[in-house]
Write a structure and sequence with these properties.
7-stranded parallel sheet; alpha/beta
């Protein structure tokens, strides 16, 4: 059996109708996992789940949920358990960044939205799934952070603060859950070619400029991050916890 095999595992991935999240659910299904596709709108969730089920019948369900709503997240967990019987893997991928500019000028509402969606929602979801993982003595939780959490910024400071907090959340929970064989990690992407970051790369000049300081001389693709998450979610990552795995083409070196 491959160290990366996920046959028999059940995964929830938030923000999984496009970009990094979509690549994660698709590649997890390839490895044999059953997956719950989730984002705010039902239509895109059903479309991605349908694509997966066309290749791997019965391996995906669609559960739309707004990460800012604790009730939505509880329904996401409950419907996954109802459909698949358990949750082995949680990937907290959904996030928001509604503000671009100096930290001194951010509104209270924008700051709170970033902290709530990028930190508190992850805390809620982990609280909801961790008890069964602890009881079963098996589970893998991955938070998608960012290299923004490792560096300062004059324009996305609140986002960077939230992503640094996610790294600390993973370290804290790795201590709490480690004795129960439940692992908690982060993946910190560099600039990836997704709609979320489109403003930074959507012209040839912008892409050249953004990739110039990267040793691999290219921006990330969603599948580059999916592989890292599968490693952390599978037997291959069984002795890895509390870590932030940087996947950035070498940008931060």
């Amino acid at each position: 059996m491959s160290l990366f095999d996920l046959t028999g595992k059940v995964a929830i991935v938030t923000g999984s109708t496009r970009g990094i999240g979509k690549a994660i659910v698709e590649q997890m299904a390839v490895q044999g996992a059953r997956v719950t596709v989730s984002s705010r709108k039902a239509g895109p969730c059903e479309e991605v789940a349908g694509e997966i089920n066309a290749r791997f019948p019965g391996h995906a369900i669609a559960v739309p949920a707004n990460i800012s709503s604790k009730e939505d997240l509880q329904r996401l967990v409950d419907e996954t358990r109802s459909a698949f019987g358990k949750i082995d893997i949680l990937v907290c991928n959904a996030a928001s960044n509604p503000y671009y500019g100096p930290q001194a000028e951010i509104t209270d509402d924008a700051f709170r939205k970033i902290l709530d969606n990028n930190i508190v929602s992850n805390h809620w979801l982990i609280q909801m799934v961790a008890p069964e993982m602890i009881e079963r003595r098996d589970g893998a939780i991955t938070i998608i952070s960012s290299i923004g959490g490792l560096r300062g910024s004059t324009v996305i400071g609140a986002y960077c603060i939230s992503k640094a907090a996610d790294m600390q959340m993973a370290r804290n929970l790795a201590h709490e859950y480690g004795p129960h064989n439940v692992r908690v990690n982060c993946v910190a992407p560099g600039l990836v070619k997704t709609d979320f970051a489109k403003a930074l790369w959507d012209t040839p000049e912008g892409e050249r400029r953004a990739s110039a300081g990267t040793p691999l001389r290219r921006l990330g693709e969603p599948d580059d991050l999916a592989g890292a998450v599968i490693y952390l979610s599978s037997r291959a990552g069984a002795w890895t916890t509390g870590q932030t795995l940087v996947v950035d083409g070498g940008t931060t070196i």
